[in-house]
Amino acid sequence: MTIAATAPKRGKLAAISAAGSSPGVPRPRTAYIGIGLIALGLMVLAPALLTPFELRQMGRFICYAMVAVGIGLAWGRGGMLTLGQGVFFGIGAYCMAMHMALEDAALRGEEAPQFMGTFGVDLPWFWEPFHSPLMTILLILLLPALLAFALGFSVFKRRVKGAYFAILNQAMVFAFVTLLVGQQATLNGSNGLSGFQSFFGFAINDPANRQMIYMIAAGLLIVMMLVAYWLMRSRFGELLVATRDAEERVRFLGYDPAIIKTITFVVAAVMASVAGAMFVPLVGIISPAELGVVPSIAFVIGVAIGGRATLFGPVLGAIAVAWAESTLAENFPSGWSYFQGLLLILVIALLPGGIASVGRYFRWKRAGSRFRKEAEA
Amino acid sequence: MDVVLSQLVAGISVGSILLLAAIGLALTFGQMGVINMAHGEFIMIGAYVAFVMQGLFGSGISLIVAIPAAFLIGGIFGVLLEQILIRHMYHRPLDTLLATFGVGLILQQVARDIFGAPAVEVANPAWLSGSVQILGTNVPWTRIFILALVILVVAGLSALMAYTSLGRRIRATVLNRKLAETSGISTRWTDRTTFFIGSGLAGVAGVTVTLIGATSPTIGTSYIVDAFLVVVAGGIGKIKGAVIAAFSLGILQAFIEYSTTASIAKFIVLIVVVAFLQIRPQGLFSVRTRSLA
User: Fold this and answer.
1) Which residue of B has its CA nearest to A353?
2) Which stretches of B138-261 are DSSP H helices?
3) Cβ of B102 and A344 within 8 Å?
C-alpha cells in the first residue's frame, strides 16, 4: 500500500513525532480482549461492587472517557490539539438538558421551565425543537458535527497550523461560555440547567432507571472505543497518522489533508457531544462552569497522562485522573491543583507518549543498549 | 456621530488593555514560537505585586513602584520557566502549551494559598481619580494612563528591536537560529532575554489591570485567550501586527457591544478573527520564523 510508505513504522518520521506515538495500534486480539475487559469492568463489576453514589461518580468519569476517546483520535493520532471540546460537550449537554427541562415542564402541565417564569419570558424559539425526543437526539449528533465541520474545514483548508488551531479552539470555548453566561433569561446563565425529573419518560430518581442510564453511557463508551479502533486500523487511520507526521507528502500523494483532519475533528466533536448528552442525566446538572477553558484543558490532561496516541491510554487516563481528582480533592482541595499541574508538566516534558508508552520506552532503551553494544563490538 | 466617537474612545481603551496583555506574548509566542499559557498567570503575578506594593507604600506612589517591580518579578519568573521547562521543548509548541498550563495551575494555587481565593482590591491613586471629557465621552484618567503606558511600552520595545544590539540579536535568532549561532550570537542568552522582557511586560500588564478591576487568582485566565487572539490575528513576529490587531479588535468589540451585548460581541469578534484567518492565514504581518507544528 502506498500509504504505508508515508507512515514508516520506524525511522526518521517516527523519531520526529512524539516518542511512543509511532503506530501503537494494538493487534485485533489484544484490542478486543482489552475492550472486553473494560466492558466487563464497567458494566458488570462496577454495578455489582459500587454504591449508588460511587456508581454515579463512575458515570461521570465515563462521560470524560468518551470525550477522551475523541481527543485521542484528533490529538494523538491526528496531531490536532483540540482545546475546544468543552464547546461540543456543552452543545450535547444543553440539547439534552433542554429536552429534559421541557419534559419536566410538560409533567407539571406548564409550557416553559421554571426559571423562565422568574424572568417572565416565554419559551424562546431555539427551545422549540427540543420538545421532540427524536429531534433532540438528531441535534445532539448534528449540531456539533456541523460546527466542527465549519470550523475545521475552513481552518485546515487554509493550512492554518496546529498552534493556531489550538488557540482558535480555545477562543471558541471562551466565546461559547461567555455566550451561555449571557443567556440569563433563556438558559439560566451561569446557574445552568438542573433539577431534572425524567429522562425520555423514565423517572430519573428510580434506582433501576439510574442503572439503565449508567449502562447506556458505558455501552456508548464501548461503542466509541470500537469505532476508534476500527478507524485506527483502517486505511483512513493510516492516512491520519501520515498527515500528522508528513502532511506535505500526503498532499503530494493526491490526498487532501484538510478533509482527513476535518473528518477526524468531526468524529471527536460528536463523541464529546454524546458524552455531554449523557452527562446531564447522570450528573443532573449542566452549567457553563463545566465547559470553560480550564475544564476543556482538563479533558486533555487525562489523555496526555494515559497516552495520547494509543487505544486504551485516553480512556484509562481520563478515568484514572477523574477518579484521583474526586478522591484526592476531597481530602486536599489545594493539594490537588499542585498535583494536577505537576503531573501535567512531568508527563508532557518527560513522557510525551503518556503512561501507556512506559513499556515501549523500556523496550526502546533495551534495544538501544543492545545496539550500542553491537556497535562497540 | 456622538455614539460613533464615544464607542471609538471606548474601543481604543479596550484595545490598549488588550495590547498590554498581548505585547509580551507577541515576543514569546510571536518571536520564539513558544505557547506560554502561564503568561496569564504572569499577568496575575503583576496584579498581586501591585497589591503588595499598595500594602507597603500606600496607594499614592505604589503604582509607580509597582510597575518596575512587576516587570522585574514577572521577568524573573519568565526566565525560570524558560530555563527549567521551555528550553527543552522548543521543537514541540503544542506541548509547551500543555506544560505551561500546568505551571499556570500551580501558580494560581500558590496565589490562592497566599492571598486567598476571593478577589482583593487595589485602590486607584488619588492622582488618577476622576475623568476627563474627550469628544463628548467621559474617559477615566486610569484609562488614559493605561493608553499612555502602552504607547510608552510599544515605543520602547520597537526602539529596542530596531536600534539596539539586543534587538538585532533577537531578530537574527528568530530569522535563522543556526546562522545566528554561527555568527557568534549566544542564542541561549537571547532566548532567555527575550523571555525576560516578554514575561516582564506581562507583569506590567498585571499592574495596569488592577486599575480597572479586582484582582483574583484566576485573573490571568480572563486575559490569556484575548491576548493570544490578538497575536494570532496580528501575525507572528511583528509588533506592528499586534498593535493594529489589538486596537481593531478592541474597537470592533466596542461597536458590536453597543448594539448587542458583551457576550455576543465576544462571539462575533471570534468569528471575525476566524474569517480573517481565511484571507490571511499568517495574520496581518508575519516574518518567516521557525515554523509552528
Assistant:
1) B95
2) 141-163, 165-175, 177-182, 187-209, 219-234, 239-259
3) yes
Q: Which of B101, B266, B292 is nearest residue A163 as measured by Cβ atoms?
A: B292
Chain B residues with CB under 8 Å of A154 CB are 274, 278
Task: Give the C-alpha separation, B58 to B81, whole Å.
Answer: 31
φ, ψ of residue B15 to 5 degrees: the values are -60, -40
Q: Which bin fits A28, alpha (ψ -120 to 50), beta or left (φ > 0)?
A: alpha
Helix axis angle, B219-234 to A162-182, nearest 10°: 130
Which candidate, A311, A300, A319, A307, places its Cα nearest to that of A353?
Answer: A307
| pLDDT tens-digit series, residues B275-290 | 887 777 777 665 554 4
Using CA atoms, how far residue B112 sits from A11, A205, B109, B214, in Å, is 47, 38, 5, 14
Residue segments in chain A with a per-residue pLDDT below the cut of 50: 1-22, 374-377
Using CA atoms, how far apart are residues A211 and A278, in angstroms rounded to an integer? 13
* Grid cell of A261 as nine digits: 483532519
Length of chain B: 293
Other residues' Cβ atoms within 10 Å of the Cβ of residue A13: 18
d(CA B116, CA A250): 52
Yes or no: say if A207 and A52 are a contact pair by the CB < 8 Å rule: yes
Q: What is the ipTM of this complex?
A: 0.83
What is the spatial distance between Cα A84 and Cα A272, in angstroms, rounded to a whole number? 10
- Partner residues linked to B215 by β-bridges: B120
| Residue B293 pLDDT | 35
SS3 A354: coil
Distance CA B50, CA A367 (A): 55
In chain B, what residues touch A171 (CB-CB under 8 Å)? 225, 228-229, 270, 273
Which residues, 6+ apart, have CB-to-CB distance to B116 below 8 Å? none
Query: Shortest Cα distance from A235 to chain B (angstroms)?
Result: 24
pLDDT at A365: 62
Residue contact B94–A162, C-beta within 8 A: yes
Q: Specify whether the CB–CB gap between A305 and A186 falls below 8 A.
A: no
Q: Which residues of A38-60 are buried (b: 16+ CB within 10 A; e: fewer)?
A: bbeebbeebeeeeeeeebbbbbb
| Helix ranges restricted to H, A234-312 | 235-245, 247-252, 257-283, 293-306
Chain B: closest CA distance from residue A158 (Å): 6
- Distance from the B117 Cα atom to the nearest Cα atom in chain A, whole angstroms: 11
